[in-house]
Amino acid sequence: MSKLPFTGKLGRKSLNVIKANIAFAIGIKVIALLLVIPGWLTLWIAIMSDMGATLLVALNSLRLLRVKE
Predict the structure, then answer these.
(1) CA-to-CA separations, 49 to 6, 11, 54, 56, in angstroms, rounded
(2) Which SS3 state, helix, strand or coil, does residue 3 take?
């Protein structure tokens, strides 16, 4: 029972990080799609940007490890 407040705090922070990660990933994909249609973005640059976004989302999620009790 003593860990219940920490669990609630961690759950709220997790939900905020998840929402931010989803918004960031979708935003990057929309920007890439808008740049691919006129031909301003090559396939390889699009792949690199997608991998970069994946790494940033994973690194952003690692912030949850710093949540203190």
Answers:
(1) 36, 30, 9, 10
(2) coil
